[in-house]
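Appendix B. One record, verbatim.
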Amino acid sequence: MPQSKQKQRPHAKTQSRKAQTPVQFRRRVTQWFARNARDLPWRGTTDPYAILVSEIMCQQTQVATVIPYFQRWMLRFPNIKSLAAAAEPEVMSHWQGLGYYSRARNLHRAAKSIPGNFPTTLEEIQSLPGVGRYTAGAIAAFAYDKPVPLVDANIARLLSRLFAIRDPIDSAVGQSRLWHEAARLQPSRSGRAFNAGLMEIGALICIPRNPRCPACPISDFCAAFASNTQRQFPVKKIPPRPATLTEHCALIIRNRQILLQHQTGPRWRGLWKLPPIRRIPQRPPDLLIEYPFTHHKITLSVYRQPAPRANPLGLDWHPLAGLAEVPLAAAHRRALDRLLRLHT
């Protein structure tokens, strides 16, 4: 966002702290959003399907990363019917690189579960596979302009500072308080601009470290800012230490083809990866990389191996020239990119 658009507000402690009303708060949020909103590809539409795609993609993924994936996805699957009719391997291929592949499978399942028009009520939307309270509310607000509360990571951080919430925001008590406050702030109608504005202030101003309080349009409503404790929020539970795992895999290439294993379990279902090794060679691996996966720190060691006489169940050969089109687990694609530069 251009720096010139961010007008610096006087420090709240230099102003008389007059009683502020919810109407004034909402007006500040929507007026700031009208001037400072980022031009994101899903902001120019009220299509609930496009909003669903954007919200699912933005879960645990930065907006800048999502934009090109969203644009490619919408070109290939422009509506619910086109996604519902697609085969799972193609869906996974268009998702690869975004990670958390269960999101793509749930999105595909959601498309298949909608026989006609996209649902319009909050309850119907939340019944879709993979759609929780926040995502359902986002679709209701941004597609249908309903005044429903939303609590994503950005709004949670903003509300925790606004009300100086000492309960961890990732606890049941903290979540209950956040949703209560989000509901209390909602306008009586037209929730699209207000909720989008809260999210945008959280994303651009009320950032995790060193919040930009002098540029914040609602700093004089903020309890943490008034007490100069904004850096103490949000409060979170102490995370558990990640468990460590090691996986040993084989690099098997023959006649410009590579042998890969198709995943059917919950971890990477529908994707391909390097096949596992049962007997670990008594030599250093050809490649060693580390990657995180859901509270785990995984070390992937890869050894070049000869081709088997027959393909075990679940393994298949893929031309190296077409590897870019194969939906590969992200860590294994990264390993292959490095290995192939060394061995081909």
